[in-house]
Structure formats: structure tokens, C-alpha cells
Amino acid sequence: MNADYQDVTGALKVALAGRLDTEGVGDVELGFSARVATSAVPVIVDLSAVEFLASLGVRMFIATGRVLAAKGGKLILFAPTEEVLDIIETMGLDEILPVAADEAAALALAHG
After folding, report:
1. Strand pairing partners for 76?
2. Rounded CA gap, 52 and 45, in Å?
3. From first to last of its 112 residues, what are the pLDDT tens digits of the chain?
4. Which of 16, 25, 69, 77 suits 48 as a labelling partner, its CA being 20 to 30 A distant?
5. Which DSSP helix (H) or strand (E) runs through 11?
6. CA distance from start to end of the chain
7. CATH class belonging to 2-111
8. Closest CA to 85 of 51, 41, 38, 56
9. What is the dihedral of CA 108, 90, 28, 1, to 10 degrees?
10. CA–CA distance, 19 with 65 (Å, rounded to integer)
């Protein structure tokens, strides 16, 4: 699992690649949580290269999203594959965090 962080148009973009399973979450969770939770701008997370999302990955997003929300921030997921979107919807993550179709839609939600 890889995580790439980039500043884009008043937001922090995190591009994740690989499997967010036990091993993958272990690879990125500490850095992701630390970097995202301390962000002073909205955070958009690119899921287009995420092959699988396990419950630990969902937990990571919920926990980080709650920390950001408590500080008045936003965490927005975008561009999940069909398989990952199915998991997001089945687990109800889309009822807790916004999920956008693409980066432009995620940025619109971030600044809306």
C-alpha cells in the first residue's frame, strides 16, 4: 500500500494505491492519520488505485474523518473502483463520509 500526499487547490489530496487490508492499513495508517488529522485544509482521498477495502480501512477513514470534523474539517473520498464502491455502500461508509465520483466533484464538496 502506498500513499502520496499533494497540495491541490486549497485541499490536501491523498492518493492511495494497493490493498487496504490488514497489511495495507498497517503500512499507511500512522502516516495517514498523522498527516490528515493535522491538516488545516479539507482532505480529499483518491481511491482509484485501491484494489480492496477491508473493515480496517473503513475504520481508518471513519476515525480520521471524525477527528477532522471535530476541528471543523472535511474528509472526502473520491473515484473508488466499482468493487471498492460496493464495499463502501455495503458497510455504510457513504452515510458517514462523502464519496465523490472524481477529483473535481471532491474539490467542489471540499469547498462547498
Report:
1. 44
2. 15
3. 999 999 998 999 999 999 999 999 999 999 999 999 888 899 999 999 999 999 999 999 999 999 999 999 999 999 999 999 999 999 999 999 999 999 999 999 999 8
4. 69
5. strand 11-20
6. 31
7. alpha beta
8. 51
9. -100
10. 20
Q: Tell me, what amino acid is at 4?
A: D
Q: Which residues of 28-44 are buried (b: 16+ CB within 10 A; e: fewer)?
A: bbeebeebbbebeebbb
Close Cβ partners of 94 (under 8 Å, ≥ 6 residues apart):
88
CA separation, residue 110 to residues 18, 53, 77, 104 (Å): 25, 23, 10, 10
At residue 96, φ and ψ (nearest 5 deg) are -105, -40
Is-above-0.85 flag for pTM? yes
Q: What is the DSSP string of 16-79?
A: EEEEESHHHHHHHHHHHHHHHHT-SS-EEEEEEEEEEE-HHHHHHHHHHHHHHHHTT--EEEE-
What is the Cα–Cα distance from 70 to 37, expressed in whole angstroms?
10
